[in-house]
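Reopening this ticket.

The earlier resolution said the output was attached, but the attachment link was broken on my side. Pasting everything inline this time so it's all in one place.
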Amino acid sequence: MVLEMTIEERLQTLILSRYPTMKAFAEECGIKYSTMLAIFSRGLDNTGISNMKRICRTLGITLDGLGRDVIEFNAEIPDLISFRFAQNRLFNLMIDNKVELDGEPITEDEARLVDDMITAAADIVRRQRDRKRPKVQEDYEE
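Inline output:
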């Protein structure tokens, strides 16, 4: 007997194919990890629309498809996408030999190098942003 996967199981499989953990995905979505766990334990039918939109936007899938228990990828890139989604999309295009540099397709090793460099650059940007944010002074008891 073959059991069909639920939409939650298919969605979780997609997430874990792109992110190392559900926690990393939750952070990328801007959803608390405990909330993400609750979403998948109680089912998508009981999830608020704002969290569903965040999940769909981060994965690049349609909310309409998810409502029909189908994972449909957006044909067009929306106006605003997550950095991680854009990085994954570029990496997959490079691996599939759909990106060229100086007239030659990017090799898999070159794609991994570019991906590592993009990750390093993103970390630099995050550190710069952190330095620009106002410091919150904590009260200390004496």
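Reporter confirms the inline version is readable. Strands lie at 100-101, 104-105. The first helix runs from residue 7 to 18.
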